[in-house]
User: What shape does this take?
Amino acid sequence: MRAAQTQAWPARPIKLVVTFPPGGSSDIVAHSANDGYTLLVSNSAALSIAPSLLQSPGYDPLRSFEHLAYIGAVPTVFAVHPSVPANSLSELVSWIKEQPAPVAFGSGGAASVGHLVGEQFAQTLKLSMEHVPYRGAGPMRADLLSGHVKLAFDALPQNIALHKQGRLKLLALTSPRRVAQAPAVPSVAELGLAQLVSENFVGISAPAGLPRALAEKIAGAVRQISARPEFAQTLEAQGFVTRDMESKAFAQLIADQHLAWGDIAKKTGAKL
Assistant: This one.
């Protein structure tokens, strides 16, 4: 019976669930039938951050899902106002240490990826910093451009044009290596801070218990689509960094990120 279902898949429309707010619909997918017709567009917020902040998440980021296919990730960028006398990450660190009061940094909101990257940066280098949560990246970016806040951790794509216009300085990316969209901006890994590499990933996951043959079929289909040049180019134009990744490696990435960000998220005191 299972073999016949796998061979026939897909025999009807597939429901792709996108979580918003973080973690909002993940529990629905976790408790759906494991027949390949309800899939989660998984991401860092829902799987690596939210479970540590929700009082009753209703799902476990590892045991409740089969993580099938990695699609890509959007790097987080260290963005500073031009008035900050720093043109490199090391100069930024020195500047922060010289300030008499904690340096405020902005993000798109409490417990956002940018918030956690900022907290991890401060903890790793023992810097005195204070988070300023905004209701979205738009208002935060407006305050950064005006100089109301001097430092922010934000998704790369929306900052590329501002950097080219000289309105912001981009000092580092949290990607494992430099990216084509901003080739002049170094990665934290090449700067000797590999522990700050963090992927705000997007992938495809399914409810736990999905038959292995069906899991392999879905994963193969997603990887095949992701390998198409036009698909990769569309994602890259939106700021994604794409690469091929086996299902086991994708699951391990989620496990590692959940472990690394779980304690940091709890220490922020944020609640979802």
In short: The radius of gyration is 20 Å.
